[in-house]
Design goal:
two-stranded antiparallel ribbon; Kinase-like_dom_sf; alpha+beta; 11 helices; Transferase(Phosphotransferase), domain 1; 326 residues; kinase; 11 strands; globular; 16% strand; Phosphorylase Kinase, domain 1; ATP-binding
Length: 326
């Protein structure tokens, strides 16, 4: 169960904090794990396809939710560009017949020539079609032509949580606001975990705010169905990776997402992540971040209330087996 105890009442911490030296001591493993060489990538790709089958009876087959076909050029009018990235672009579009607004994600096939990018696109399509959650972006239609894949998605007019946080003068949120957004994320992960999906890419940029103010997870390209098995591929943002993701030797499962919830809660309230590279500035060294994750404990501000401090410490338990929600 992803986060059954991470609902609104005990969801987020208080003010300032920083990483501090602790007692884990696997620096060599962290250094090796943080080296993102091409050879490791190839090895990881093979390992990622060789996860165990335990737990499939528990979770069962994925729900087969029908996703209608669309004709983007005939049925929709583009209003504005919302963003662009490695795969293509996302535009705000209006459906001509009723004026309904959607986000149209266009993935260029020319950019999907790499095997890993193809797998990422397929996994995102599988996950977003299967997960039926009020806290995960919904897929409303698909289309493809010679040049691109088209996904018609639920629009989130409030933008990214990252922009919401960095619009403040302190680059952090109040305790009440942080609790609310962390609760939304925890509910999203609970719905994904119920189907056996580990998200693997939690960060503020991937949390979008809907018109009603609620937060929703987006960008499910790293999501993978592991059930009770494990995956060995290192995916995600370095500062959000759980220790078992950094080290890689034992693989990781759903509990890795629960660690990320603790990092998110800490960052929302402090303005920075708990295991950051203090000397790296805008270009943190992944090997330094990896060592901090494996070696250090988060420095919890004394002014945090007991519930907030306990929540973050339990999410950031280095033992995945005893971690909150794991």
């Amino acid at each position: 169960d992803a986060a059954s105890s991470k609902s609104g009442d005990d969801a987020a911490p208080g003010d300032d904090g920083a990483a501090a030296s602790g007692g884990a001591g696997a620096a060599a493993a962290a250094d090796a794990a943080a080296d993102d060489s091409a050879a490791e990538d190839e090895k990881d790709g093979d390992a990622d396809d060789d996860d165990g089958d335990d737990g499939w009876q528990q979770f069962g087959p994925l729900p087969q939710r029908e996703v209608p076909a669309i004709n983007p050029k005939k049925q929709f009018k583009t209003i504005a560009l919302l963003g662009s990235g490695a795969f293509g672009r996302v535009s705000l579009v209006r459906r001509k017949r009723d004026g309904a607004l959607f986000a149209l994600k266009v993935c260029s096939k020319a950019h999907l020539c790499d095997k890993r990018m193809q797998e990422t696109a397929m996994r995102e399509r599988e996950a977003v079609a299967a997960v039926d959650s009020d806290f995960v972006i919904r897929l409303h239609g698909t289309h493809q032509d010679r040049d691109a894949l088209y996904w018609l998605l639920e629009p989130c007019m409030g933008g990214e949580l990252f922009d919401r946080v960095h619009s403040t003068t302190t680059n952090k949120l109040t305790s009440a606001a942080a609790r609310f957004y962390v609760a939304c994320v925890a509910l999203a992960l609970a719905d994904m975990h119920a189907l056996g999906f580990v998200y693997r890419d939690l960060k503020m940029e991937n949390v979008l705010i809907a018109a009603d103010g609620y937060a929703k997870l987006a960008d499910l390209g790293f999501a993978k169905r592991v059930c009770d098995g494990r995956t060995f591929t290192q995916r995600g943002t370095p500062e959000y990776m759980a220790p078992e993701v950094v080290v890689k030797d034992t693989g990781h499962g759903l509990a890795a997402d629960c660690w990320c919830v603790g990092v998110l809660a800490f960052e929302l309230m402090c303005g920075y992540t708990p295991f950051r590279d203090n000397k790296g500035g805008d270009n943190p060294d992944p090997s330094v971040v990896g060592r901090n994750i494996v070696r250090q404990e988060p420095r919890i501000p004394a002014r945090w209330d007991d519930d907030a401090a306990d929540f973050v410490r339990r999410c950031l338990d280095k033992d995945a087996g005893t971690r909150l929600g794991g």
